[in-house]
């Protein structure tokens, strides 16, 4: 296999992707629950046939994602937006199997425009207090004054029949294990349990560490089975980021090496443009395949930095066995989710190329950035 990589490139491995999808499918068959792939982390349209083969459908957050779903995926399309645009709502609903309303105001405003074959869900805000691991505030949907969902104080049970609500949805986790989901489901039951027998389904949202090492699938199954059996509910989860665990890497080329009290390798990828979690989340660290995990035995220390004019465009400090040189490639691990979908044209920097490798090791799909694409976004 020759990929002929010359610059920053995302590499997506379908073999590993299918392996993760098979694990999710096993969970579906074991519990009777349904798994949706949330496209907000990454939209693998190039591998839509695999998603359609193993999962119940997709979860989308916008008109463009919904239209893409109609083109590339089979199965259900669950649409949730914190607020809907009046001039695009009808088209959005036409591409959806389920519409999730975020507030009672939007429920009242749009329910009569939902087609009869599309089901209506309501997002709940559990105001859940974390039991095992706190979430960085910027990613925490449970904080006071959160714009996401209806709290128990705002909830009106008469809306269920009045607006034909047939399901509830909540999202309380962010990269957390089955233990925290169990606690969140307890919060759901404590606050909204008396209403669960009046709807048909519950969507437990995303943020699950599925497909990651040591994830407690048995506890997840136990939590899902309780909701399914005791309340006679159809149960969904909609993971995104961790469905891509070990699936994609980002290859980056060293453009220059500078020195200012430390060795600084300037790359053709940017924390600002291509890996925004580095700057947004203080607990996130981008793993580099070639770097040493433990620097106690020596090595060569480098600050890896981006090519933009932003002073804070720093990826991190790493230790390597060998000296780096211009033209070397560095491999950032686990870079499929929340990278490509959040990339920008700040400073007019080119976006990374994309290569998809199929199960036989052949290049299935290749996409490169261009000046015309840049102009179309200005």
Automatic annotation (TrEMBL):
- For this UniProt entry, what is the primary localization, expressed as one broad class? cytoplasm
- Cofactors: pyridoxal 5'-phosphate
Q: What Enzyme Commission number does this protein have? A: 4.1.1.96
Which GO MF terms are attached to this record?
diaminopimelate decarboxylase activity
Keyword check for Lyase: yes
Binding locations of substrate: 277
Asked if the keyword Plastid belongs to this entry, the reply reads no
What region holds the Orn/DAP/Arg decarboxylase 2 C-terminal domain?
243-334
What GO cellular component entries does it have? cytoplasm
- A GO biological process held by the record: spermidine biosynthetic process
Q: Give the SUPFAM superfamilies listed for this entry.
A: Alanine racemase C-terminal domain-like, PLP-binding barrel
Identify the keywords attached in UniProt to this record, alphabetized. Cytoplasm, Decarboxylase, Lyase, Polyamine biosynthesis, Pyridoxal phosphate, Spermidine biosynthesis
* Top-level class of the enzyme under EC nomenclature: lyase
InterPro entries per the UniProt record, alphabetical: Ala_racemase/Decarboxylase_C (IPR009006), De-COase2_C (IPR022643), Nsp_de-COase (IPR005730), PLP-binding_barrel (IPR029066)
Q: Give me the reactions it catalyses.
A: carboxynorspermidine + H(+) = norspermidine + CO2; carboxyspermidine + H(+) = spermidine + CO2
Q: Where in the cell is it found?
A: Cytoplasm
Its biological function? Answer: Catalyzes the decarboxylation of carboxynorspermidine and carboxyspermidine.
Family from the record = Belongs to the Orn/Lys/Arg decarboxylase class-II family. NspC subfamily.
What quaternary structure, including any partners, is listed in this protein's UniProt entry?
A: Homodimer.
Query: Which named protein is this?
Result: Carboxynorspermidine/carboxyspermidine decarboxylase
């Amino acid at each position: 296999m020759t990929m002929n990589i010359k610059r920053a490139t995302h590499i997506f491995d379908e073999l590993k992707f299918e392996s993760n999808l098979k694990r999710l499918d096993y969970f579906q068959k074991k519990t009777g629950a349904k798994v949706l792939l949330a496209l907000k982390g990454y939209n693998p349209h190039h591998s839509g046939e695999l998603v359609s083969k193993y999962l119940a459908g997709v979860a989308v957050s916008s008109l463009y994602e919904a239209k893409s779903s109609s083109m590339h995926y089979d199965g259900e399309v669950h649409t949730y937006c914190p607020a809907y645009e009046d001039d695009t709502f009808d088209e959005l609903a036409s591409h959806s199997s389920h519409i999730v309303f975020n507030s009672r105001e939007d429920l009242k405003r749009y329910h009569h425009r939902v087609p009869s074959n599309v089901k209506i869900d309501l997002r709940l805000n559990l105001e859940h207090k974390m039991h095992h691991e706190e979430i960085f505030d910027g990613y925490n949907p449970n904080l006071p004054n959160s714009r996401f969902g209806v709290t128990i104080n705002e909830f009106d049970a008469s809306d269920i029949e009045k607006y034909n609500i047939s399901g509830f949805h909540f999202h309380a986790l962010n990269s957390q294990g089955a233990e925290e989901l169990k606690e969140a489901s307890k919060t759901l039951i404590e606050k909204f349990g008396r209403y669960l027998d009046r709807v048909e389904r519950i969507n437990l949202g995303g943020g699950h560490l599925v497909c990651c090492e040591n994830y407690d699938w048995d506890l997840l199954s136990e939590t899902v089975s309780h909701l399914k059996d005791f309340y006679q509910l159809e149960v969904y989860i909609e993971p995104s980021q961790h469905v891509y665990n070990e699936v994609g890497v980002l290859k980056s080329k060293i453009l220059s090496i500078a020195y200012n009290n430390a060795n600084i390798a300037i790359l053709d990828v940017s924390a600002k443009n291509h890996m925004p979690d580095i700057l947004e989340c203080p607990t996130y660290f981008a793993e580099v395949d070639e770097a040493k995990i433990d620097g106690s035995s020596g090595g060569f220390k480098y600050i890896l930095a981006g090519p933009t004019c932003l002073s804070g465009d720093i990826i991190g400090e790493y230790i390597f066995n060998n000296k780096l040189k211009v033209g070397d490639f560095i491999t950032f691990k686990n870079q499929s989710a929340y990278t490509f979908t959040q990339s920008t044209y700040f400073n007019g920097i080119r976006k990374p190329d994309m290569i998809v490798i199929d199960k036989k090791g052949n290049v299935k799909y290749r996409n490169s950035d261009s000046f015309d694409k840049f102009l179309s976004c200005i």
